[in-house]
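Quarterly update from the structural biology core.
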Amino acid sequence: MHHLSNMKIQLTCLPVIGHRVASTVVCIAILVGLTIGCSDSRYGSKVSGHITLDGEPVGPGVVVFVPEGSEEPPATGGIESDGSYFLVTSHHVGLQPGSYNVSVRAYEERDPPPPGEISFEDPVPIVPRKYLSVKTSGLKFDVESGSNSIDIDLSQK
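Predicted structure, tokenized:
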């Protein structure tokens, strides 16, 4: 068993300014290191919002943001049953600022096939087929630096 009272940290690297100041410097250095290490600033933007079809929430499903004219990977987000989503890129929250083509993929929920069987039935989309691909959806959004709220309103027409 370890006892914290037996632990000592000697601060001999800064003898001129004293132990109190040296302790403060060490604490600040540790906090800065933790802050940088825990930061999710890999991307300059965050996007969340709601997706609806003729005013009704769409979900569950997936929304995909593909950057225009960039080699950056697409950002994806799971659509919850209430239509809410947030985007991640390569398993990190957020995406780069810029212009994006967007697709929305949501399908009818089905019961899984019995154990040991495979279903070859195509999933039935609950959104018009044009929204399933970024090439046909007509959905384009600009993402600014910082937090963005982008609600996506789809139509059966």
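The longest strand covers residues 45-53.
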